[in-house]
Amino acid sequence: MSAPIVQDVLPLPRKLPETDRVNLVGLTRPSLREALIAAGTPEVQAKMRVNQLWQWIYQKGVRDFDAMTNLAKDYRALLKDHFAIEVPEIVTRSVSADGTRKYLVRIAGGHEIEVVYIPEDGRGTLCISSQVGCTLTCTFCHTGTQRLVRNLTAAEIVGQVMLARDDLGEWPKPGRNPKDETRLISNLVLMGMGEPLYNFEAVRDAMLIAMDGEGISLSRRRITLSTSGVVPEIARAGREIGCMLAISLHATTDELRNKIVPINRKYPIAQLFEALRAYPKLSNSERITFEYVMLKGVNDSDADARQLVRLIAGIPAKINLIPFNEWPGAPYQRSDWDRIEAFANIVYKAGYASPIRTPRGEDIMAACGQLKSATERARKNRFQIAAEAGLPEPERIVRRPDAPDVH
After folding, report:
1. Residues marked as catalytic
2. 118 - beta bridge partners?
3. Is the pTM of this model over 0.85?
4. Predicted local distance difference test score (pLDDT) of residue 106
């Protein structure tokens, strides 16, 4: 049940598309302004052009410069010469019996990620990825058995929201105010493939784009970033992103958490909770969510529940209890339902919300902890992936037997 903190510490470089045109998707407003000026937009017009393009791309979902009717033809020609508007490609879409949609998505270099849309009464949640594979090796998580290939760009992260809106038909109809439209994607969670805080800048820029009121316009309180506990970046996330925070906890002692969430060896529970108590957005109205996967006979005892209550004392919190979602070769079993309910009851009586998450999309391997892109299910190593993507062979990592863990 033990595992290294990371399987592979060097992500592959991104193979850029063979084009001179810059993708406008994923550029922050300042970066977009700089790009437009560099392409020949007069500085006095730059702010106006940024606003126009921002609304066409992120508010209306338009990808064709010729359809941007409030721009002069010669300016549209300039844009076409220098820029593109591109999002990742949906390869396959699977729909669960419960309505959950899972998208297999291809990005630059031929790599694949998975994105999940979960419809519920009164809301719709999109679960997006931040890395191809994952730097971490949590032993209960299927994604953790896939090697880290590379970080996603801001364009590839916010592009997941855009392609899901394409598939759901969520872009506003011509002539209608976007605020009058039904929001099928009302919530965004960074709980897909990867550790978001190990790809901080790209995640931050993508979320700032998603929160911008002139575009996709998701409230920061409807965006949740889930981390396994990258302690040095937690405060920074509160300052620079400001979204809701979720912690993949899953154990209440260092001895157990070291085994099932190996990053705990670098940032043990005491350090993690010190950072959480100082989180800039922490308040009764903006609680931290603790995610706790229920593993039969491992972390589901009454003693575990009572220790969890002691750990979170003084932190405005909600505890999501997640029945383990099994996957081929998984070393665990789901806790019995009466055991989960008994655990939840202890936490609830201590004064904390402790909902039991209803498994969604299990029949299409879209449930929490089950994501793993089809390319990687073939168990290809990073050298095979690099060869297929046309990249130079990555540096081989050689460690001395006595070398410390690298994070």
Report:
1. 114, 368
2. 125
3. no
4. 93
